[in-house]
Amino acid sequence: MSTFDTIVIGAGQAGLAMGCCLRPAGLNVVLLDNSERVSEAWRLRQASLRLFTPAQYDALPGLPCPAPAGHYPAKDEVADYLENYAHHFALPVQLQTQVTALEGASSAFVVRTNRGNCQTAQMAVATGPFQTPFTPAFAQQLDASIEQLHSSAYLNPKQLPKGEALVVGSGNSGLQIAEDLLDTHSVTLAWGRPQPFLPQRILGRSIFWWMERLGISRVKATSRLGKRLKQRPPVISSDLGALKRRGLKLAPRAEKASSQIVAFADGSSLKPSSIVWATGFRGDYSWIKLPVLDGQGRPVQQSVTAVQGLYFLGLSWQRTRGSALLAGRITQRIQTQPRGREPHGTTLVEPV
């Protein structure tokens, strides 16, 4: 069984950032990832996808994003940057490695994978918030003639038949997909609850410039403002009014379906040819066999968990609004003592 000082599960942006921050400590580290290629998940996303943060806010520790300031990187630019980041710092990424269980032993964590088992004194879970696509149960009541796919499987408008396209979910992904479909389809966007919409630029500057200056990016999750933002996260997008002028129709929450009809909260209904479910994701931590999950299987943590030596990174609102963003900050506090002798609450790398 291989032994490491630290094992990081996940080699996305959070895992790569952690790997880079651990390098100066001289620890024996490995990053385990199930993909065939670093940043593969970015390459498999919709063709039109762009970040809503400009390039100057999209760098991980130690390596600037190569795109010019003010440019909004496309998904392949992000993928290239992350892959180059791993190569630039020679990060020890082990690909095609599926973690099947994380267990605790008396003196070490045991990580079971499809390529054998390994153990470590310190463990970081950086698998991110986007794991298992969620689709409401009533979607199963729809006729097979209606093309349905989750936003995670959406690539371009050619996937959908001609006619009325319904996009359910008005987060950033839902709005981007609805905009992408407007040139080829009649599009209705169903949003579950009113959300504040923020433009990408205000008075000639990125909304993230304003967030930095006003301290919104650093708002603590436990603060009054942080709790309000979590309840009603703003959508950062192009002009909603402009999309409506291009033909985008809005509908309230989609609540039920039958045969070929989707019914909305106000009693109206629609007969779509296709549906894109931009209804988010659910975490899957069933492989973690340690007492760090709540009754719904979600991590109980703020980076630090109740199990000494086990940490999470890259989840939404761990500490601040920016915790899960590519532009999020990371502060490092390297722990080099063996498990069992570490100061309680000391973290390896944590979002701030």
From TrEMBL:
Oxidoreductase in keyword set: yes
Keywords: Oxidoreductase
InterPro entries, sorted: Auxin_biosynth/cation_transpt (IPR050982), FAD/NAD-bd_sf (IPR036188)
Classification via Pfam families: Pyr_redox_3
One GO MF term: monooxygenase activity
Protein name: Oxidoreductase
Organism: Meiothermus hypogaeus NBRC 106114
